[in-house]
Amino acid sequence: MLEVRGLAKSFGPAALFEAVDLDVAAGELVAIVGESGSGKSTLLNIVAGLDRPDRGTVRLDGAALPYGDDDALALWRRAHVGFVFQAFHLLPYLTVAENVALPLALNGVESSQRLERARAALQSVELVAHADRKPGTLSGGEAQRVAIARALVHAPRLLLADEPTGNLDEGHAGQVLECLRAEVKRTGAAALVVTHSALAAAACDRRLRLAGRHLAPA
Ligand SMILES: Nc1ncnc2c1ncn2[C@@H]1O[C@H](COP(=O)(O)OP(=O)(O)OP(=O)(O)O)[C@@H](O)[C@H]1O
């Protein structure tokens, strides 16, 4: 479903990576590991349409990302990508359900349908009982499960997670990884998980290492 071919990126004279190839199937979780500074987040950002490659192509369901057109790229990202960040990035002044509904508003879903879909997404991550609370009252693990519900509420084809367990202790990390895995399998999204955590990498179906400017099985 996700098809990356010959991807290259440099900042300045030294190449961060070159000729990166990557395929991710529907419902598959692939971990990207590698030393700090090897370019994992940059690779994720290029696949997300937040950054552009110097060379190479990224295709989703056969369609190439429109890197040459800012407006088309923003629309593509909004419709097809769900993002989970290390620091959750929930808006503190909105309720949990309102946070989860945000991607629906951005994608033009009618307001009458948004709350119902947000509650269904929260049901999937077993947090519907917390729908009316503010994010500040949740544990880290709960906050990240809300972020997973928000990332998937608009049924994106691609789920991208950058250090999703980086702010969690091992117990919460385990719950979040179980949730992430179950949700990816349920929705059939293709998932890329950038991580330094052996626990998180082990929860994925495959592990790839970015090192020496190339991506290879870990
Ligand atoms: N916009 C930018 N301009 C210049 N250099 C950048 C830019 N973005 C990233 N870099 C550099 O590219 C290198 C790779 O950064 P990146 O964040 O992709 O690495 P990473 O493998 O995700 O690291 P970490 O594991 O520490 O998060 C770093 O040396 C970083 O300073």
From TrEMBL:
EC number: 3.6.3.-
Top-level EC class as recorded in UniProt: hydrolase
One term under GO cellular component: plasma membrane
Keyword Ion transport: no
Domain annotation ABC transporter: ranges: 2-211
GO molecular function: ATP binding; ATP hydrolysis activity; transmembrane transporter activity
PROSITE patterns per the UniProt record, alphabetical: ABC_TRANSPORTER_1, ABC_TRANSPORTER_2
Keyword Cell membrane attached: yes
InterPro entries hit by this protein: AAA+_ATPase (IPR003593), ABC_transporter-like_ATP-bd (IPR003439), ABC_transporter-like_CS (IPR017871), ABC_transpr_LolD-like (IPR015854), MacB-like_ATP-bd (IPR017911), P-loop_NTPase (IPR027417)
Record key words, sorted: ATP-binding, Cell membrane, Hydrolase, Membrane, Nucleotide-binding, Transport
SMART domains (alphabetical): AAA (SM00382)
Protein name: Putative ABC transporter ATP-binding protein YknY
Naturally occurring in which organism (per UniProt): Usitatibacter rugosus
Organismal lineage: Bacteria, Pseudomonadati, Pseudomonadota, Betaproteobacteria, Nitrosomonadales
